[in-house]
């Protein structure tokens, strides 16, 4: 029982990181209908930069903030390349993001090398129901949940958030009322980059990051996002937490080598269930 409690709390912390990556995918997809396969690379970029800034002597808080801002800037750059040209089809933009994600490998190896990196997070451990848990896992959850609350308020209460939601609901109607849909798409890429960057900054103290860590991040983030049909950030949060707990429990009792397989099985099951529920006519129209 003690071990299970520890796995649950640890899994919630890891799953919160997946949820942040997944919510970035959701924010971008809602507005542009593009799946940003470079999302994992943005998390790696922010984590690597934060590690370098801390090594250079910048204080905690400043380095992490700059890392998240770098993720947002890189996300905006991906958006400019992927959807900046008017009339670019979502399928073509998706391929562009995949190519940019691969390009990020070369850039990260060139700048930071191929060795894993990490940096210290919130130290110490607490005892919960007899299980000792690193405090940093609790910090990840404590940061992630308010971030999702702020996202909900942003989309529901601010003019900018409502403009993004309008583009997601009906791009044509949004254009008619004067909303620049392309600019909103670029904003969604920047917001998605910031969320991915935050995931990288929060999870690196408990999980070392390498240039190819984006594969696991994008697979798990995509699985969390797909649970909500790529349109509901709240469901992506629940999906990410569920995925993190499932992987941690499987790793704890069955071995850590099967973590990615858990995400792939969940992803496959959700996509099959979605295909079964979708009427053939609607599928053809989509």
Q: Can you tell me about this structure?
A:
The chain is mostly helical and 286 residues long. It contains 12 helices and 2 strands; from the N terminus they run H-H-H-H-E-E-H-H-H-H-H-H-H-H. The protein has a two-stranded antiparallel sheet with strand order 1-2. Helix 2 runs parallel beside helix 4. It is globular. The relative contact order is 0.22. The mean pLDDT is 87.
Number of helices: 12
Distance between the termini: 47 Å
The percent range for helix content is: over 70%
Give the number of DSSP strands. 2
Beta-strand fraction estimate: under 5%
Family: Belongs to the binding-protein-dependent transport system permease family. LivHM subfamily.
Organism: Catenuloplanes niger
Main location: membrane
GO molecular function: transmembrane transporter activity
Concise summary:
The chain has 286 residues and is mainly α. The protein is built from twelve helices and two strands, in the order H-H-H-H-E-E-H-H-H-H-H-H-H-H.
Kindly list the characteristics that best describe this protein:
single chain; two-stranded antiparallel sheet; globular; 12 helices; mainly alpha; 286 residues
């Amino acid at each position: 029982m003690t071990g299970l409690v520890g796995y649950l709390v640890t899994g919630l912390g890891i799953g919160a990181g997946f949820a942040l990556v997944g919510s970035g995918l959701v924010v971008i997809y809602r507005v542009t209908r593009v799946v940003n396969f470079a999302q994992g690379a943005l998390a790696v970029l922010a984590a690597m930069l934060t590690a370098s800034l801390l090594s250079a002597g910048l204080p905690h808080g400043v380095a992490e903030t700059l890392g998240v801002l770098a993720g947002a800037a890189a996300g905006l750059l991906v958006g400019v390349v992927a959807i900046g040209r008017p009339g670019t089809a979502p399928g073509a933009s998706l391929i562009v993001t995949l190519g940019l994600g691969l390009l990020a490998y070369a850039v990260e190896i060139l700048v930071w090398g191929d060795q894993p990196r990490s940096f210290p997070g919130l130290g110490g451990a607490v005892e919960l129901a007899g299980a000792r848990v690193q405090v940093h896992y609790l910090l990840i959850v404590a940061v992630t949940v308010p971030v999702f609350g702020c996202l909900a308020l942003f989309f529901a209460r601010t003019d900018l958030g409502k403009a993004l939601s309008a583009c997601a609901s009906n791009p044509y109607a949004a254009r008619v009322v004067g909303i620049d849909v392309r600019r909103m798409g670029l904003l969604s890429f920047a917001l998605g980059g910031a969320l991915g960057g935050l995931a990288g900054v929060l999870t690196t103290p408990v999980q070392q990051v390498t240039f190819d860590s984006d594969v696991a991040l994008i697979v798990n983030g995509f699985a969390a996002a797909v649970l909500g049909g790529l349109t509901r950030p709240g469901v992506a949060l629940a999906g990410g937490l569920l995925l993190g707990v499932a992987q941690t429990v499987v790793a704890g009792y069955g071995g850590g080598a099967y973590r990615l397989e858990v995400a792939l099985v969940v992803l496959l099951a959700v996509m099959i269930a979605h295909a079964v529920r979708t009427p053939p006519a609607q599928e053809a129209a989509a």
